[in-house]
């Protein structure tokens, strides 16, 4: 398992995307998000997606030099057409617009349609925290393919529909971050289990007959993911799809085209009272939790987002460990595009 | 188990609160919310709380004739002081203000501090849907008493911190509604299990030593609730407290006084595009889910909020079934306050 320095990942990724037709801005934008996902420890949304992005560019579905555009705007809201380019670019524009609106009014929200995969949802909640805003983000596809059953159902009818909340932490410390799928688990973890030949825990998946199973092969043979926490995760999944795909007007994207949708809302603490008071509340709550005695089997109580922060600190310093198959696939794509880079010399 | 007609519950509740010193408006406002919780099937937030409200009024903590006030306002936001009267009144004002702001700007948010128990959180998300707005609501106390452990912790350090999302349904049908606590289960269900002498499922509670248990007595002997879905419910609990108690400046309420806090945000679909397009998306998603084949053990796939709708339809027609102990306690309070009413003749 190679460990690749962050700078090398970034410059290599940018070079690959440029060689595939991306503008320098687009190449830098998507690579920053992919490497950022690896830094946060969310490898399933990181550079392992480079080869599939390149494949989509080759097939014409993903437009590497396109630019997302704003199709609708009010003082408080905006709608972005992702332009079928890298989804992270439409997502970044959406998150930035939500924050800009909130700077003026205290609240702001924006939504996007027609994006390729928008990447790590937590990134679009973190974006608003850089301006000091509490931020919510939700992502869903308009047309599927679906992977998750509704609670009480037996067939795939929902995406993994992830959402995130981020709350700015005083003095520039990393934000409090909630970031997860509304399925029991992200699809990437099923791939990992399959490659490792391991059973998955009960409550993750059902087989094609709707029966609970721990054999991950049953998922790939026509089974489905369960929502997390039964009816609770199911309800949130429905809300996420209605917010992201519904508000953005995602249905205007024809089936077969990139149809990822995003919703981002920012709330400025200063619109409710002195920003310092809010910062003090966040500190007080965070400290109360961090001081809790751990349960058996735990070293300490972590705040939401601390795992991402620890991963980021470690990988910024030590580099990003990549599975052999991931690194091989990236090197293969680089060679095909005649990209030379010291890391693959 | 008596079944009481909705009109009787309403007029009796109002009479009791008026006899205890509530203004007619306050009595009507709190009773509407309590009976509304029973109608929705959330009995733990319904009229069973009448006796404890009256007790709090007697002890001076709950001010039955006070009025919530607006302490801070911007074009997009507002902050409400609950005034230590019935929490549902401050909550209703907060939800109404959030919707009023959204009428003007497309987005609106309001928050409240200094409330007594704010009741069924779903009601404050449903309020905004009456204006056609997607609405989020979250409630938390500032000072505890806490009942839930953080993920990886062993001592009570969080409330049950519930939240809700409601999405307006086309043509006046009841909204899509998510409404649940971030603890594994509401405290009321533990009371029910205790009274029934039943064990609770694994994953609900731990004992005072931090060990998993199914003996509900262990909770009342110094144990604690677990968050729902492990780190996922824990993260949402932290977000809820920071939104509700943090943004409202809940820390200004001295310990020992009513300290419930609320956060409500409204999003107008028409701020993002034609409202009809959004309504069509909601219908399309809802129909896709309702048409799903059910899993074994289920009759059909329900939409979030359908259980509440079914309960409402049944109880509006048949009346509200109340546990003997609940009805006895209400009649006792009525007699003590010299309230006469046909239902308790």
Spell out the CATH superfamily of the largest domain in chain A.
Malate/L-lactate/L-sulpholactate dehydrogenase, NADPH binding domain
* Poorly predicted segments of chain A: none
The biggest beta sheet of chain A is recorded as:
7 strands, mixed
Q: In percent terms, what proportion of residues of chain A is strand?
A: 15-25%
Tell me the radius of gyration of chain A: 20 Å
Span from first to last CA of chain A? 17 Å
| Net shape of chain A | globular
What is the CATH class name of the largest domain in chain A? Alpha Beta
Number of domains of chain A: 2
Order of helices and strands of chain A: EHHHEEHEHEEEHEEHEHEHHEH
- Largest sheet, spatial ordering of strands of chain A: 2-3-4-11-5-6-7
Oligomer: homodimer
CATH topology of the largest domain in chain A: Ribosomal Protein S8, Chain: A, domain 1
Number of helices of chain A: 11
Helix content of chain A: 40-55%
Largest interface pair: A-B, 78 and 79 residues
Structural overview:
The structure is a homodimer of 345-residue chains. Chain A has 345 residues and is α+β, with helices and mostly antiparallel strands. The first copy, chain A, is built from 11 helices and 12 strands. In chain A, the strands form 3 sheets. In chain A, strands 2-3-4-11-5-6-7 form a 7-stranded mixed sheet. The first copy, chain A, has a 3-stranded antiparallel sheet with strand order 9-8-10. In chain A, β3, α4 and β4 (107-115) form a beta-alpha-beta unit.
């Amino acid at each position: 398992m190679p460990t690749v320095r962050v700078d090398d990942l970034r410059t290599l990724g940018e070079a690959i995307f440029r060689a595939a037709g991306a503008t320098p801005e687009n190449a830098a934008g998507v690579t920053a998000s992919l490497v950022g996902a690896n830094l946060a420890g969310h490898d399933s949304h990181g550079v392992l997606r480079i080869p599939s992005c390149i494949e989509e560019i080759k097939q014409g579905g993903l437009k590497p030099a396109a630019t997302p555009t704003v199709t609708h705007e009010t003082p408080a809201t905006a709608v972005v057409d992702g332009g079928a380019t890298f989804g992270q670019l439409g997502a970044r524009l959406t998150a930035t617009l939500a924050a800009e609106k909130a700077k003026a009014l205290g609240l702001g929200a924006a939504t996007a349609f027609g994006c390729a995969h928008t990447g790590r949802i937590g990134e679009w909640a973190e974006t608003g925290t850089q301006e000091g805003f509490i931020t919510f983000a939700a992502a869903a596809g308009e047309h599927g393919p679906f992977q998750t059953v509704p609670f009480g159902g037996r067939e795939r009818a929902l995406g993994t529909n992830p959402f995130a909340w981020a709350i700015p932490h005083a003095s520039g410390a990393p934000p409090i971050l909630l970031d997860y799928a509304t399925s029991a688990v992200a699809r990437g973890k099923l791939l990992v289990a399959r490659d490792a030949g391991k059973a998955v825990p009960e409550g993750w998946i059902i087989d094609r007959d709707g029966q609970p199973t721990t054999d991950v092969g049953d998922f790939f043979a026509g089974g489905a993911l369960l929502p997390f926490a039964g009816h609770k995760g199911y309800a949130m999944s429905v809300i996420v799809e209605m917010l992201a795909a519904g508000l953005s007007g995602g249905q205007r994207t024809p089936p077969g085209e990139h149809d990822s949708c995003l919703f981002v809302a920012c709330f400025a603490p200063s619109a409710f009272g002195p920003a310092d008071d809010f910062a003090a509340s966040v500190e007080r709550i965070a400290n109360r939790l961090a001081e809790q005695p751990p349960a058996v089997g735990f070293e300490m109580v972590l705040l939401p987002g601390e795992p991402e922060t620890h991963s980021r600190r470690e990988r910024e310093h030590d580099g990003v460990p990549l599975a052999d198959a991931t690194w091989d696939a990236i090197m293969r794509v680089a060679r095909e595009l005649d990209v030379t880079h010291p890391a693959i010399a």
